[in-house]
Amino acid sequence: MQRNRPPSAQAINVLRALAADPARWRYGYDLVTEVHLKSGSLYPMLVRLADRGLLETSWEPGQGSRPPRHLYRLSLAGREYVAALPSVQAGRAVPRPHNRWSEA
Amino acid sequence: MLIVMMCLAGSAAALILRSARTVPADPATRGDVPERLLRWAAGLLSAQRAEWGQAMLGELDHIDGRGPRWRFAAGCAGAALLLPPWGPAAAAMWVMAAAAAGAADVFAAVAVRYRLGAGGWIFAAIALVFLVSFTLAAATLLRRPGIALPGLLGGLVVTLTWLALSGFTFYGVTAPMTAPWSRLIAQVMVPALVGVAGALWGGSAAVGRRIARLAAISGGLGLYLYATIAVAVLGAGGPPSDPGSTVSYTVGDRLGSAILKDLVLLPLVTATIGWAAAAATARLRPGPALATSVFSVPVTAAGPAAEASRNPVTTPHEAGPAVRIRTWHRTAWLLLLWAAVAAAVFLAVVGGLRG
Question: Of A92, B57, B243, B257, which is the most buried if we count CB atoms within 10 A?
Answer without folding.
Answer: B57
